[in-house]
Amino acid sequence: xxxxxxxxxxxxxxxxxxxxxxxxxxxxxxxxxxxxxxxxxxxxxxxxxxxxxxxxxxxxxxxxxxxxxxxxxxxxxxxxxxxxxxxxxxxxxxxxxxxxxxxxxxxxxxxxxxxxxxxxxxxxxxxxxxxxxxxxxxxxxxxxxxxxxxxxxxxxxxxxxxxxxxxxxxxxxxxxxxxxxxxxxxxxxxxxxxxxxxxxxxxxxxxxxxxxxxxxxxxxxxxxxxxxxxxxxxxxxxxxxxxxxxxxxxxxxxxxxxxxxxxxxxxxxxxxxxxxxxxxxxxxxxxxxxxxxxxxxxxxxxxxxxxxxxxxxxxxxxxxxxxxxxxxxxxxxxxxxxxxxxxxxxxxxxxxxxxxxxxxxxxxxxxxxxxxxxxxxxxxxxxxxxxxxxxxxxxxxxxxxxxxxxxxxxxxxxxxxxxxxxxxxxxxxxxxxxxxxxxxxxxxxxxxxxxxxxxxxxxxxxxxxxxxxxxxxxxxxxxxxxxxxxxxxxxxxxxxxxxxxxxxxxxxxxxxxxxxxxxxxxxxxxxxxxxxxxxxxxxxxxxxxxxxxxxxxxxxxxxxxxxxxxxxxxxxx
Length: 573
What we know:
The protein is an all-alpha fold. It is built from 20 helices and four strands. The two termini are 28 Å apart.
């Protein structure tokens, strides 16, 4: 408990200044690094033909994002199909087959990083750099750009100008992702994470056998995979291997990296809507969070801590079968976990990576206890517990609007949020946005268990087999990327189906959310009265948590009852 508490305290200490820094970048305000970055950004604008003064409405912004991502998808797919060329390929990696290349390129462009391959045997260094690492930067910056535009729409500073997608993409990449990655990458190298272009090392063990030890530009991938909430590991075992995560310090760096920017986005949101709407800041909360941001941050934190508590408790209980033999009562469930990290750091990493939709793992989620494995699955199904690349905040605002609408009906008033009336158009778009996520998860899960090609991938019988399927599509729809790795997923069915879920889960939601922000942006502000529902209070944060859980119970409980919950009762019964 002390490990977990101290880790979270450090997170709170570093997330507040990072959020203020992101706010200055999003709002175009002065920062200490402007003398350097202004020159870099202006050079990029000049060679790219970008006019920073050109604003975009929500439709133009969405089209710019999707078309830019589509071009990158095409180029990345071609590189994966020809990666066998003798360029940065010392290990002689062959070309990817078409369906796996399709899945991989969609996965990394949507910031999912679901891996149906092992990086050390499936990718050349050329692909690791030009496709994987590059897309970890641009997919994250695309998501954060959409989030910034979304917040601008909610703040309503103008009627039809959400900013310029290309300017936001450049500024987020040059001023946040690259400098933070350089610092974090050097810290990982200092702790022993490899960063080279050498071929694999063949070493003779003490038993006289031979072992292949993978090397390469690992540290560069590691830091941006966490900082950009990407999650795709250079190696198949991800951050559970000492090559990617050698010490407790690297484990903490990776934890803080994946928590940092999603948490900072909430602070950025609070400060942007506070300044634009109220024109002043006062008090501790206003100064560091903004009251609306603090309410959302509190609701997300409650959801996170509840999930963390359940996961930590479940893993600490161990396996009752082994417990009867006296093997797991003291250490808890250590199957699939690194002894370097133990139960506490494994439970924290598991909850964090699926709450902040990163997808990296320092233990194998397929070996979690039933309830311990249900927590990451549920948090991906919710997709609002901070989330990654700004998407978690955007999804949570959908629930905020839903909560405002429900409470407005209860008190007989027209619902309002941020001094804008919530009317039929917004509610229809919000309902559609919220429905898409469970539709993708449950619809494709039903398809998988109905077809022989889907059933063929299930390697565990009974309840756990269904959990494998639910987890795979929840991870894909939430653009998380982690998996119950017992699933045999490198097949035509799983590559195509998860590729489609990742694509629609990413871009449909972003388009609808930008449309909602664009609709609210054009509305006039209304004066708050004594009868207005305040959305910046502790009580509203609790209401928001209840609304999220009610929706989860109504939508996902039947499937969870047939998977991890049934498995728990079967194990402990």
